[in-house]
Structures are given as C-alpha cells and as structure tokens.
Task: structure prediction
Amino acid sequence: MASSDPRSGSPERAAPGSASAPQQAQTPSEVYRRLMDGNQRFVDGTPAHPNQDASRREALTAAQAPFATLFGCADSRVAAEMIFDVGLGEMFVVRTAGQVADSVTIGSLEYGVEVLGTPLLIVLGHDSCGAITAALNSFATGDMPEGFISDVVSKLLPSVVRATGAGRGDVQGTVVQNTIDTVRRLPQRSAILRQAVEDGRLVIAGLTYRLADGRVNLVAKLDASGVTETPQADSAPEPAA
Result:
C-alpha cells in the first residue's frame, strides 16, 4: 500500500499532470458503469488491457488511487482485474476462499474505502465455488474438513442454512446467498464501512460471476437507503450516484 495519512483519509497521489497518473472516478455509478463496460469487453473476448504498460507501472511507484475496492474469492479462475478489464492501480483487491472475512480482511477493505477513498466496494462470488461446495457437503454429512479449511466452512454454514431454508440450497443458490450475506455483514462488523455507507460515500454491490461465459450479475446493493436484493434476477438497478 502506498504511504498515506490514515487520519486524513487522503492517500498520496501521482502528479495530476502525469500522462499515466491514477484517475479516480467520482461516484459509485461511474465506477460501476466502468466495471460493467470492462466486463462486457471480457465477455466479448475484446479486452483493452488498459494501463498495463511500463509508463503506467512507473507512474504508480509513489502512489495509488484505485477507483474501486473488491472483495472476492481466492479461486484461481476468478482474477478480478481480468474479469473487469482494468489495469495497474485501478482496483484494490482482497481475496479469500469463499469471501470469508476476518478482522485483517475487513481492515484491508476499510483501507480501500477510508484511506484510498474508493466509492464502490464490490463483493464477488462465483459459481462452482469449492469453499461453498465443501460447506454444503459438511451440512449434508455432519463431517467437517481437516485443518483450517474447517474455519472457512464454519463461517459459510450460516449462508448454507439460509439458502436451504429459502429453497435454493444448491451450490449456485448458496453462492448468491453468501454474496448477499457478505454485503449485509461487512457494514455490521465495520463501523468505518457502515459510516461511509450512511454518509453516502460508499455503495456496496454484490455480484456473482459465471465461469462459463465470464459475465457478472448484480444480486444485491447496499447504499444509504438500505439493501436491494435480486437473487433470481439477471440484473438489478445500478448503484446510486
């Protein structure tokens, strides 16, 4: 992370006059549209691979100013920057198996929002998730996996229970439920994220990703007005400005 003053919440930034200086979108809607445009290029097989050259790399040596924070699964098939066709310094990414959050993970997300000033926090789930599959197996059999994988599974079991109770207890339905639960849970656990949402400085959007075609789908949105869930829809309203 670039050096900054956490008390001011204002990171050091590259000189505005630099041709490759970081450029930060101003509203959640602008950020969301930029990411959706990038995802469409990825789906179409026409990625632009922006801001990945040597001049961009050099411009970022002293500072970063990403326009979005993303919390996704560690699955090797779900590389966030590729999915949204963004470049160096444009997205602050945190990934764990099944989007399971501990205090360090949440602290990292707080850094992206409060210090780096990103107006949109994406929670990204995906189909065929191995962590979700393991949690479903444990729920069905009563057996927990060995090692610290059991910690991951135990944190996913509440979403398994809710998805099963709602009649969508397969892998994909549970992925959607876990994504929605994470959107709700993050501001409940983090006063910093909750305040940013209440102040209108942050929108949290829950997306799911399809491995086969590369497309993302909005299943939940949290802004100052509350939560909107569309677990069965193909799309949902864009994050508010």
